[in-house]
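Reading group handout, session on sequence-to-structure problems. Before we discuss, look at one worked example. The prompt was deliberately terse, the way you'd type it at a terminal:

> structure Glycerol kinase

The input record follows.
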Amino acid sequence: MTGQTYVGAVDQGTTGTRFMVFDHGGEVVANAYEKHEQIYPEPGWVEHDPMEIWKNTKHVITTALGQAGISPDQLEAIGVTNQRETTLLWDADSGRPVHNAIVWQDRRTTDRVEQLEDDGLVDTVREKTGLEADAYFSATKAEWLLENADPIKMERARPADIHDRAAEGDVLFGTIDSWLIYNLTGEHVTEVTNASRTMLYNIHDLEWDDELLEEFNIPREMLPEVRPSSDDATYGSTDPDGFLEAEIPVAGALGDQQAALFGQTCFNAGEAKNTYGTGSFFLMNTGDEAVESDHGLLTTIGFQRSGESVQYALEGSIFVTGAAIEWLEDLTLIDNPAQTAELARSVDSTDGVYVVPAFTGLGAPHWDQRARGTIVGMTRGTRKEHVVRATLESIAYQTRDVAEAMEADSGIEMTNLRVDGGAVKNNYLCQLQSDIIGSKIVRPEVDETTALGSAYAAGLAVGYWEDIEGLRDNWQIDREFEPEMARAEADRKYDRWGDALDRARDWARDGD
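And the output record:
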């Protein structure tokens, strides 16, 4: 492959890290993946080891390049995409984290969010950030770390108060994009989509918000500089004396869901995608207008290119979809995810069984932190096939919850939905989703659109791709799914889903 050049993308997700290399046509020419440990210190707590993530990142980069016979200096740029909201602090001197990263799924700060509600700050948070006050976002995670991280872990001659050192810029805050860019380039930056998920960033003024920083007692000095998602000036370059032995610009970054929006070439207002990963994330581009939601959705930043206006999006965050399939594996109801389609097809229906996979609460449009997973409608005749089918149906129902809210907020009737992520390889799920939502489901040839989106952002910044029209030309359809179920039947099943949701709500109580 000598002489050709490419763009690489680090895709750091909830369960693992991937590195993919793309050519001019948007085709994958190299790919490596490695899982990392999920750490559960207490019920409802989820952590990752940032040093393990960085080690794995280096490993997948070198592995992918080596297996494909690509030299690092054939990369014109690297893009980064990441699990959003996951939060860590690290020592600026040593570059080492002061604590494990707190993952977006973590619920340890639920009480703090309820305090915000009691203090009447929910509307303020929503007006400034477009977000619901929820433990999902970074602000309360960073606050918890500042209050609870052990000073002894800090590599300093004397243990020092972490908050005091943060106020001096000696302890740094970041989401995973910042952590990777810092380790790749030495620069402490983030970009607008990740900043917009912290519950600290004013998405209208496009700056860190002093009132919110004061509320969560987070020093401005520890925050990264916020840059465009596709940055002509680049965020910095890899160290030629480092693990790659080459100086490669890191020029683009997006939170994973916005990266998928970009990779699905949803560049115009009204275009929408849904990514089926650990959770599912449904985004619609609303152009340069931040549309306020009246139906439980988030207003967020979709992307920004250098010298251009921010593009906003409406988002419905569904906390558990792919993770529900992993749960079936954990219970040994299935041996692997591919088995779900076979088992679901083996029965005519769920036999009245509904699964509500609210393992970490309910996200959009319900926002119930104390909801918990529920199975209802079981009889002595219920078999695992019914539970598996009901679990797949729960993914489709949750997506319809968000789709209806999206149409109500935007005033746009959705005729097709672009889908991506691991779960969309399941044809049964794609057809079921089309039936329940009542619109066409469009699956692209390259379904790893998260990595592709960050590669596009980086490649545009350095001129590897000239303009977004060329990216549209790259986007190719693999398969389309049209509704086959009678509308009345889909509506009947969906109405019953609402009854099941009611059983799951407000379940978790302190001390239970």
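Points for discussion. First: DSSP finds 16 helices and 23 strands in the chain. Second: Residues 396 and 432 are 7 Å apart (CA to CA).
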